[in-house]
Amino acid sequence: MSRVHLFYKEPPSIAHPNGWRSSPHCLEDRTTAERLRDATNLLSGRSATARRTWHIVDCPGDDCGVQR
């Protein structure tokens, strides 16, 4: 299994006219990323969940510089 990066984007709003992107997290594998996404959605509520577009992408390597 290879490491992945997880982050989400939100559309433009009054607070963020150009939209907003969360800080990425470097996780062990896709399954872990999907679990974190699902838990975050559950805790965030329906309106936040509806706004967010989640992205899970491959990590370029061990020294990627992304928060683990």
Protein model, in words:
This protein has a domain of 32 residues. It is 31% helix and 26% strand. It is built from two helices and four strands. Strands 1, 2, 3 and 4 form a four-stranded antiparallel β-sheet that branches.
Q: What class, by secondary structure content?
A: alpha+beta
**What shape does the CA trace take?**
flat
**Rg calc:** 13 Å
Strand content: 25-35%
Give the SSE string: EEEHHE
- Low-confidence segments, given as residue ranges, are none
What is the typical, i.e. mean, pLDDT? 93
Q: Strand count, sense and closure of the main sheet?
A: 4 strands, antiparallel
The total beta strand count reads 4
Which key features would you list for this structure?
68 residues; four-stranded antiparallel beta sheet; 4 strands
